[in-house]
Design a protein that fits this description.
2 copies of one chain form a homodimer. Chain A is mainly α and about 100 residues long. Chain A has a single domain, classed as Chorismate Mutase Domain, subunit A. Chain A is built from 3 helices and no strands. The radius of gyration of chain A is 19 Å and the shape is elongated. The mean pLDDT of chain A is about 95. The interface between A and B is large, with 56 and 56 residues.
């Protein structure tokens, strides 16, 4: 493979990464919107925001659905970050509502 | 809204989160496979694995494509984790190849 051929192949693969990233981003925002709806219902029904058992189920769902190449540890760390950012979003939203 | 109604609505929304999570997971694994291909080409062409400029482009791509509700900071942190886990996967893979 010449350097030019390698570069051309890399460019194509990177374009594909960028496309996948935008789809991941769209799904993350879609997930955030559903979590916002969940937060609204919990607020109306006066249910606790934080439910550790539900988080366990989230991990179980993705770990049992993981076909790799990402390891179980990687999947867990990725979804820890996802859950954490959703919680941050909820907190920001509640603070904004209180300030209004 | 009665407690039963709230619970039924939550159950539905959580089912939808679980579905979105599996789609996110699938895309993360798809991304990992493309990154593995990129690694293979870089190895053959003796190109550096770590390219900070390319990482900046990855962030630019998702930040400019973000329609919310996730904040720019959240998107950056999420993709930092994604990039980090892809790098870990590459390192594990190279260590395994060396050991063979």
């Amino acid at each position: 493979m010449t350097n030019e051929e390698a570069q051309a192949a890399l460019d194509l693969l990177r374009k594909s990464v960028d496309e996948v990233d935008l789809r991941i981003l769209e799904l993350l925002n879609q997930r955030a919107k559903v979590v916002e709806k969940i937060g609204d219902i919990k607020k109306v029904a006066a249910l606790p925001i934080y439910e550790p058992k539900r988080e366990d189920m989230v991990f179980q769902n993705v770990l049992s659905g993981n076909g790799g190449p990402l390891s179980a540890g990687a999947v867990r760390r990725l979804f820890e970050r996802i859950i954490d950012e959703m919680r941050t979003l909820q907190r920001e939203r509640m603070a904004k509502e209180k300030a209004q």
